[in-house]
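Why do we bother with holo predictions? Because pocket geometry can differ from the apo form. Keep that in mind while you read this record for aspartic acid.
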Amino acid sequence: MKTTAVIAIHGGAGTILRTAMSTEAETQYHAALSGILHAGERVLADGGSALDAVTEAVRLLEDCPLFNAGHGAVFTAAGTHELDASVMDGATLEAGAVCCVTRVKNPVLAARRVLEHSEHVMFTAAGAEAFAAAQGLEFVDPSYFHTDARYRQWLKARGTEGTMLDHDAATFAATRLPGEHDPIDPSKKFGTVGAVALDMHGHVAAATSTGGITNKQAGRVGDAPLIGAGCYANDATCAVSTTGTGEMFMRMLAAYDVSAQMEYRGATLEAAAHDVVMTRLPRIDGRGGLIAVDAKGNVTLPFNTEGMYRGFARVGETPVTAIYR
Ligand code: ASP
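The structure, written out:
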């Protein structure tokens, strides 16, 4: 039986204030999201796998400087970039991930190669780069990840205490230095990208990629590359990609919890995702959201912040994109 294929993507969740976003910036985000949804939808329309669709969508999100992943990744406290990505195939429960890579152009492609060509699930730092090099993936000079917007954001974050959640203009506004009046443009501050899809063969897949949190300590790894926390897929339940305060998503095993609630207590996709984002994560001050699809083609995109760059596209239909609540 053929299912109606669908893809959903996100470009990060957080304090995205309508008042702080120019119409021009808003248009750019909508255009980027719908262009990428179109590309993912084409893969599915051609009979491609959910795994191929999410990999392609996340690759394009990584190449787009608007989002905190790949090219547009945020800076670490050391002024460098450390990128994390993961991918999971709901048909086989195979998964691949890399973290702390600094020169791999598209971390999601490295994660995909791990899934396909390694007996392991996750590689880190130098080992991940050696694996990616052996796989013939494209490498870039670390300066490729330098964008002026992220650099300015980092300079401001360095004046504040600790890390700045990539999500939160309010965080910066609340901690900015005396005399420093302009809070960081919220349109530039959000982190992590992801995609989930259901293909016409009834299989689901998920992929997540991030630069992490602005001014994070070198070596810090968040939820994005962790299977079960930032990414999960199982044909029997759903596919999930998360964005938010990574440490809380790790402690809650947020992505897997959506799947587990469906499997163990028979929750619907929507009820399970809502419970994780609106009830469980807030208990430990977890802020952010997730995108999820199930094998019936249901889609849900809940978030507990002001906004989340997001959208979905069913094959043959016009993509729907949104930013605010
Ligand atoms: N979850 C990501 C991390 O903690 C950040 C984000 O989604 O903005 O690395």
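The pocket of aspartic acid is lined by residues 12, 166-167, 191-192, 210, 212-213, 222-224, 243-244, 246, 288 (CB under 6 Å).
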